[in-house]
Design goal:
Oligomer: single chain
Structural class: mainly alpha
Order of helices and strands: HHEEHHH
Strand content: under 5%
Number of helices: 5
Amino acid sequence: MNIGQAAKQSGLSAKMIRYYEDIGLIDAAKRTDAGYRIYTEQDVKTLNFIRHARELGFSAEQMKGLISLWKNTDRSSAEVKQLALKHIDDLNQKIKTLQEMVNTLEQSVSCCAGNKSPDCSILKKKKKGH
């Protein structure tokens, strides 16, 4: 199948498929004599796996590890679980950081008069804890 068909079946854009090939997440596609990429059903399964991993917030580097584990039938599930637990820790840290940003903005908004005055606490740089 061509890249357009692979894109449709995987839910990824052709541009993303080419990008994933460029960074080594998927093997380079075989080519026709005219130079067009040809994808197999297994390629589409890999692309679907990548799309799912991306939806879960895994980075390209993490996805490389996941794909390697997914393809390795001799691996233990403990290896996969360890990688997932690390990702959960990373996501929780991001949530904490985002919540701190929300709290800071909420505090600044609550101190802003919101009137015609140019003075606005939202635009003032605050030190952490102040």
